[in-house]
Amino acid sequence: MVLNTLVTSNARLGSNDIRELQNQATPTINRLPPEVLQMVLKFTLPDSETLERVLCAPTLCYYSKLFQLCGVSSYWASLIANTTSFWTYTSQADCDELTAAVLARSKNSPLQVRYVVHDCLDCRCRENPSYLGMIVAQCHRWQSLCVYDADRMVLKQLLAAPAPQLRYLDVLNWSAPAVLVADPVTGPKIVDLMLAKVSLDWEVWRFSGLQNLQLEEVIPGPTLEQLIDIIQSSPNLRILVILDCDVAIASHETPGWERSPSPCPRTLDVLRLSEVSAKAMCGILSCVTTHDQSEVYFDLSEGWDLSKDEAVLIMTFAFRHLGALAPSYLAAKIAGSDYTL
To answer: Which of 111, 240, 245, 272 makes the best surface tag, with the fewest CB within 10 Å?
Structure first.
C-alpha cells in the first residue's frame, strides 16, 4: 500500500526530469534488453558515495528517486520491482512498510544497512526498535553495516549478529562514552574496518584480509602485537589510520625502535599516525612502508616524555624504514620545545 501511494504521488508530482523521462519512454527505449535498461536506470539513482553525504534519512532520498522512476511507465515499474539490486539499501529511518518491502524485493541480495542516529527535527533519525528486529533477522545478508551513535544495547545487538557476508563495518559513537564490544561479528570477509570511540575485544575479534583499517579514539585499542598481526595477516591492506588510540605495549614485547624490520613490509597507499606512543609508532613502522609521500602523515607531538637521544633513535628509525619517501620532517615536543631531525 505504501509503495503504491508513493509511486502514484511521485508520478503526479514528478519533477521536470521525470516528465521528460515520461515523454521519452517510447517503444524504442522499452525495446532495450532488460539488463541494459537496468544499467541506464541505475545511473540515474544516487550511488553509495552520494548517500553517505546525506546525513538525514539517506535511504528515503534513494527510494524517493526510485519511486519517481517507477512512475514513468508500467514497464519501468515492473522492471524496477523485479530487479533485486535496486532494493538493497535499508535504514532505521525507513517506515516498517518500506523496510518489509525492501527486504522482500531484495530477495537474497546483499544488504547495505545503516543505523544512523542523530539529533534533528526529523523523528525518523531516532532509535527504531521494530527495525532492529527486522534487520537482525536478515543478518546473513549484510554486506555493509554502518552504525552511528546508536544506543549501547542496540550497538551490541547489531555487532553480535552473525554476519558471514559482512565486508564493510563502520561504527562511530561520538555521543556516548566509548563502548567495549566483546561479541564478534562472524565476518571473516571484512575488508573495511572503521571505528571511532568504540572498542572491540581484540582477543576475541580476528581480522585478516583487511584493505582499509581506520581507528580513531579507540580506547582500549589493540596491543602493538595484535595490530602488527592484523597488518601482517592483510596482504591487501592499503589504508592505515591510527588516531589518538591506546596501542598498548605488552611487557614482553621488544621496544619498537629495537625491532628488526619486516623482510616483506606492507606497502600502503595512505598512512596516518597521530597521538600514539613512540614505541607503538616504531612498532608499526617496522612492518609497513609507503610509495606516496603525499599520503603519509605523522603527529608525534602529544604525550612524549623522551630524552633527546631517544627522540633521535625513534626519528632515525622512522626515516630508515620509510626511506627516501619519508615526510620532510618528524617533530617531537621535548621539554617544551620542538625537536626536528
So the answer is: 272
